[in-house]
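Troubleshooting log. The previous structure file for this entry was overwritten by mistake, so regenerating from the original sequence record. Sequence copied from the archived sheet and checked twice against the printout by T.R.
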Amino acid sequence: MKKIIFDHGKPLIGAYYFFPKDLNQAKQELSILVESGVNHLWLFIDKYFRKDNPLPRAVFEEILALLDEYNLSFVPVIGEYISLEKHPEVRIELGDGTFSSDPRYWNMGCFRHPHSLEWAGHEVREFLLAYHDHKLLCRVDGKLLMSFAHEAYYRTDTPEMGGDQMRPNCYCPYCREAFIQYILTKYQDVAKYNRTHQTAIKNWQDLKLPRDPRPDPLLWVEFIQNHAEAIPNFLRSLIAVANEVTPVFSTHECNDFYPGSWQTTLTGNDIWKMAAETDLGHEDMYPLEFDQQYQIYIYGLLKDIMHSAMGFSRPYTGNGQAFTPWVIKARLPKNSLHEQVYTSLIHGVSGFVWWLGQDYQLWREMKAPNELLEWWLPRLAEFEPERARIALLYSYTTMTLAQNDEHPMDLQLLYMALRQLGIPVDIITEAQINSGVLEERDYRVLLLPAVSALSKETRDQLIMYVTKGGTLLADYAAEISVGEFCSVVEFSRGEPGERPRFYRTRSDLSSGGELFIPVESARAGQPLFDSGHNGRIWAEFDSGVPAVVEWPVGRGRIIGIGSMLGIDFSNFPGHLHLNKMFPFLIRMRDDARKLLALLLESCGWRPEIVSNRPEVEIGVFHGRGEQKSRLCWAVNHLPMSTNCTVSIRGGTEMGSASGFITKVEKVDGGLRVDLELPELSGAWFEIL
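Regenerated output below.
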């Protein structure tokens, strides 16, 4: 994995910090942070370098003097660089002509408005002209690390905090002009556009921006694709402003919540496009941010998304939660900070940045996790994470047209099932598929979770992948009837309100007996692909109708599952919900996970290292060059201690190891390691 060591020799272990007005309080807090193992701070510099009424430069100098006193370096962060209240002209315009005027929660307005770049660029330029050679700046290969436009998104409401869902945007003159240019570039002339869209506009100024997918789903997809270019283009321009002054190692804290929902298509948060503009991937996901749902698998998922977005080779950080949730003041569970660090290391991070609250005890609890980071971040460069041979498709087109969370939720829960099986997984996009990633990374299996809408180009790539020997596994996707956009596998549609109650595998297919899976997804139906070939039936619904069917295609195969397997498996991406008055019952059906394992094993795939407890997540790293050993990580995601056995294919003996290992024994074909893991904590060991 890519190693990030600052030029002053320290690994990237930092914390976001807001300096208080009371410098004595700042000294107390900096002392705690240094003692906890934080070696640098991420500082929002807006109020010292903003274009209107910045604080006196002497105030910033006092801050730098304090950092120097405590031997702390810093990363400058551009955050709230313009005020919607003072500059209403930059507000996001909605389809009905109204505006998004709430300035809270990092609503920075439209990123295409020239005032946005002007004001953000002013901060960048002013800071760098004055401090580009300052000794306390964090540098990577001589370039200063700088974060641009914190959590950039198009915010029209607060759905994560009880507000309405996001609304289509932005329809300001600058976004209208950008979309017309996008369409002009794609079609060149009006006649070609009219033929494709079955319209009769006379010139580009007649083009009306769509408000929803109908009546022209293609135009809506094009509008959303162009919308997703706004933030990356802004980041590219802002980083260019910095590089005109001095070379920078750029990053941007990509928003956390929205990539887990279809509403990311409205917020303009395509992480893959945003991350492409930066040198260091940096996401903002926490296990317990808004309420009492402790979603540790989404915490890991966002790191794997960032791994993919950074081209599978460029570095990215993990973010740590050392604060209580913003909305409901629920206490983090014991050992959560350990669990976050172990999970981040399993998912290949090159650095770690904590977000802080006002609980100094949590700050102090960072010490042991930071010691683990300080030891391993420099050494992990000698290892490479196990390469994924299984991929999940993250379908921007499906979310754009379906406008519901069936696809992202099914994806998240299938991802959890794969991780519980010990299987490393890549998250890939349609754009990556169209660019050849399936062949380039040699995936054995691609899963389509509730993917209902793909372009013809992507469907053709998928059929080619299968024809050449790959396996495509698609579960139920609701038909949305949107022109050329559809999925690879179709499903029969019953009458409204009709739904199978369960499906079970044929008794001759599983050595452990038949698998019985209740249908929990809202809809289900027989998978259909090749009307001329019945296919191999793996499972049937209670009515006797085929529920899981496999069809040979060229040298590969397509497997259709007539229900949303992820949603049938579980209702929650984690093991811990903190609601104590009306406990939320977390459902995980072992048979659904076993069915997934059975289908993958039929493709000749099984993980090299597995835990007998699915709640214990495993990560494997392979030594580079002369380093031939394997490094194994295990983290217990349960809020209680647990005993587990980790089975390793290959290897002859144990190398160096952490604590919590109770027994190691040789078995045919490998090793077996017994662990006794505390709640929400982990262990590591080398296999020689």
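Residues 459 and 488 are 6 Å apart (CA to CA). Archived copy saved in two places this time.
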